[in-house]
Amino acid sequence: NAGVTQTPKFRVLKTGQSMTLLCAQDMNHEYMYWYRQDPGMGLRLIHYSVGEGTTAKGEVPDGYNVSRLKKQNFLLGLESAAPSQTSVYFCASSQAAKNIQYFGAGTRLSVL
Amino acid sequence: AQSVTQPDIHITVSEGASLELRCNYSYGATPYLFWYVQSPGQGLQLLLKYFSGDTLVQGIKGFEAEFKRSQSSFNLRKPSVHWSDAAEYFCAVGALRDDKIIFGKGTRLHILP
User: Of A20, A47, A3, which Cα lies nearest the Cα of A109?
Assistant: First the structure.
């Protein structure tokens, strides 16, 4: 019973490098979300998706891109990483917007 | 604009004491409300939710919360805390027509032995 799985768990990047964070859910959920968590800031929504092939911007989308080519996967990309993107990233999924969100364990990213 | 406020960044209580964590929201529509808990190094886990009906809702781990529309509040309570309750707690709010929910900045709970 995997739920929401995020890979990788940890990553260190140099400024300007690119990377992709993968989120996979096995609950057949329609909605998927990417958040970043910074000390004292709570969770801020980066991008989200309400179904396969759809994406939408959240509160802090700049510097990130996403894709939802398959219902079970939601990818978060950083094309040119910046130190300001050092954070813990969480993926979540839910069956509908007002339903419970299930979270992955997070990806801790450091950009040097 | 929609917002969620958790006025207390840190709270410290003694083991066995009662607990109340505050959450206030500003939302135009009828809200639905959540409390999540995050243990160190973990993702968030749902404690309880309110959509409609009885304004006092029960959750896991002995937690409860009361929705007070007149005060725009959804405070979390527990009669007697355990050392394992030390964690960060997040209040969140959404509305029926929204595709997303908004999280508060969190309250970190410390437990004294």
Answer: A20
